[in-house]
Every structure is written in C-alpha cells, then in structure tokens.
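Table 4 source record.
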Amino acid sequence: MRKFELQSITTRKIMGLFAVGLLGAAVGCSSPAATTDAAASAETAAPSAAAETTAEPAAEESGTVSYTDYTGHTVEIPVNPQRVIYYGETLGDLLELGVTPIATSTAELEERLFSSEIPDIEDIGSPPDPEKSLSLSPDLIITGNTDEKLLESLSKVAPTITFNTFATLEDRMKDLGVILNKKDEAAAWIEQYNTASAEMWKTLHENGVGEDETASVFTFYPGNRLFVMAGTGLPQALYQENGFKAPAATQKLIDEGTGFLEISPELLEEYAGDRIFILNAVAEEAQESTEDLLKTEIWKNIPAVQADHVYRLDILKASSDAYTLEALLKTIPELIGVQS
C-alpha cells in the first residue's frame, strides 16, 4: 500500500508463531540475553529497554556511516544502501519508505496485506541462511534476530545491524529513516499517518465510540494457549492518542515493555475492555480453541460480549508494520460499523 496500514513472554519468536502456527517458522528476536532456539519461545524473558540508535552525519551521499544499533553494535553501513536484506516482522515499514528488500523470510509473509508488493522477493529462510544471503550480494542486512552467533555469521556477508521490531511505529520509522537515508520520507510519512489517524478517531467518536472506552486484543496459539496482546501487533493501532485506552491490567504490561502475555481464561475479565478484538489464528488447532472459548460461560459473561462489542480480524492482517497500520485506519471503523 502506498501512502494512504501466568508468565510474561517478551520474545519476538511467539509473534511469528502466532502468524504461521509453526515453531520452526518463528522469527527469533528476543532480548539480547535470550537464545534463539525454538524451545526458548516458551520461556520468559525480562523486558529490556532498547538502546538508542545513533548515526554520525555523512559527509557524502556515498560511502559509509557509523551506526549503533539498539543492541549496542557499532557498524559501518552504506550511506545509501541499495540491496537490503530484511529479517523481521515489520517489513511493511520499509515498503512505506519506498524501499523493497531483496530478501526476507517468506514464511512470515503468507497472506500479509503487502504480499502483492513483493512478488519476487528472495527467501533466506528462518533463521536467515548466511550462505543464501551471500549469494544475493546484499550491501546491508537488517535483522530483528539478536542471536550473537547468527549476527557474527551474517556480518561476514555484509554490514549487519539489529532492528527493534517491537518499538513503536514512530520510533521504527525514524530509525529506518536514519538507516536507509530516508529521514525526510520518514518524517513525511509519520505526519501523514498521524493526521489520518486523528481523523479516524474523530469519526469514531462522532459515531458513538466513547473517548474513554477501553479495548482488548486476544488470540490463541496451538496448545490451547490464550494470549492478551499488549505492546505489539493490533494494539499499536488501537492504543493511540485519542484512541482506545488499555484496561489497567494491559496498561501495566505495556508500561513494563511486554508485547503479549499468556493468560488463563479465568483472567479474561481482568483484561477485557469495553470492546474486544479477537485475532483469528492461522493454525487449525488454535482456531478450534478460539471457538471453544466462545462457547464458555466465562466468555459469555464478559460485559463487552453481552454488549455485542466483539470484533474478529485475521492475525496476518493485524500486524504492527507501517503498511498494515495504515490499512487498519480503514479496517477498524469497518469492524466497528462506522463509515469512515
């Protein structure tokens, strides 16, 4: 889309697991101390504040510039990268800045809203295969995976930096503006998006959505695992200035830097807002778990359910990349039943 889209679990892997329903296809993007083994996706990881990214001003439009990524690596990167490999959940951020990566993990792209924009993108696997990456002659690799051994291997292919795919939309776009030498484009996109977002919320408030209403997002993962979404995915579209408020329990997670939390059905009422958004899972087992939950008395007794304020959206169409968040400015009013 072109310019107008109980244990704390903070690893990025499970976000990929939600999307594809396969352990092996997950994007391993945990905190710096975490491993990227598949088994680690079920372990807890303490939220860690992202280090500020920095870049020294370039004297020329060619050559390299020193850049420090959010996990503290200082790398000489191209001033104007032309062949970018991107590995992470928010590829749509790059597309909105007019940059099409030459490769990614295509397992993460099935049925994404921006899939049609990148029909010829190469697959480097998950985790990314250094040999395949080398064959594509990239001049920059951007990855959400913070595994040091993998980073060392990829760094032998091309300058490699980590990217915080769990950061806010605005922070990510500003950061990419620096990395890709697209600062003006990033600033213009942010301004345009914020204007469109404010207009959407104004329309919703004029059509019955209360200014202090809360909203919640839930989804299932195979194994009958129920999650409340907090700081990543669809909540980034809902919890905006003038938007829905997070319930107190969810806001606590956001304040702690938690992306999502596995909960038991008995805790649903604690996390349920005035409006509830259910993300339809990809895996059939998770879909069945969702339908089973909707038949329970616990679910039926939630006020938002009784008020018919429940909305469903495919999880692959509800990610937090810029392309998708822009599209959600139209989708959210449609779900609620308001003509935008």
